[in-house]
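To: structure desk
From: M.T.
Subject: fold request, one chain
Message: Could you run this one when you get a chance? Sequence is below, nothing fancy, just the single chain.
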Amino acid sequence: MRAVQRLLAVALPTLVACNALVGFGELEKVTTVRADAADDDDDDDDDSPGDPAKDSGGSTPDAPPTGPSCDPAKPFEPPVALAGPVNSAAFELAPTLMKNELTIVFQRTVGSDGGSALMATRASVDEPFGEPVELTVLAQGLDAVQQPAMSVDGLVIFFVGLAGPNSAIYTASRASTTAAFGNRRAFAEVNSSASESFPGLTPDAAEMWLSIQPSVSAPRHLFRSVRDQIGGYGPAVAVSELASARSEAGVAFSADGLTIFFGSERDGGKGDSDVWTASRATVTASFGPATPVAELNTASGEYPGWVSPDGCRLYFASERQGDGDLFVATRGR
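Reply: Done. Structure tokens follow.
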């Protein structure tokens, strides 16, 4: 909860005016619809990392992760902080990666407020990420950028933009991973007079999830906006089966979209925000009962961000070391 309070200390923000109102056609061009989701892992040829200074995903040839396989029925092993300069003395939050796990975007906040979206790359999943570079194009005209969530192909990004006392979900896109993000606009499909935060995507981008807090004294709960067959997203609808009396924030999904990991302050955890999980039979079905992922949780805040395509690794943010850092947990063999 400290992360939510620290990063979104605004009372019932109103919509931020968008600097560049554009149509949603760019997102339609660069993401697939759910009917094709089963083919994503075989057909995606444009998800390799590149020069983060150009807001790109890179020039390294696409290849599947070389990390270890796992037994999906086994618990996660103890999480480890990501090595290299992606973690710092500042506050890191909201990691999401491209499908090959070679490019990561995340939030960094220096001091007590603000924030920026950073991107870093690596040559293989066995190596640390390199020096992160700020995605400055996302921040133009804004006071801060928080909680970025990138599609697995690296072509679309959602994030929270702050301008004075106002906040809103924004989106931007690019035609390839070697291009800079552009076409930034406020994501009017889900923005309101409430407080929106922690955007997240299913791997096929057919659902955009977020947390909404209707008032300062109310908890924030999970909502989702479902994409139709012509590429438009609908209004945000509450995911009531995952709601509790406390707040939920931060989501990550399995490759098939049937398992969710999410942060929740509900009773039954270890304190603050813990990682919980739930499953559904189909992408149109409701989720079943949520259970805590006990081996990942501490008395400090944990916020899930991204699951590897093979389901073996969960990337998340945690305050267990005194401030926000990025971690990865791997399932046992």
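Reply (cont.): The chain is about 5% helix and 35% strand. Let me know if you need anything else for the meeting.
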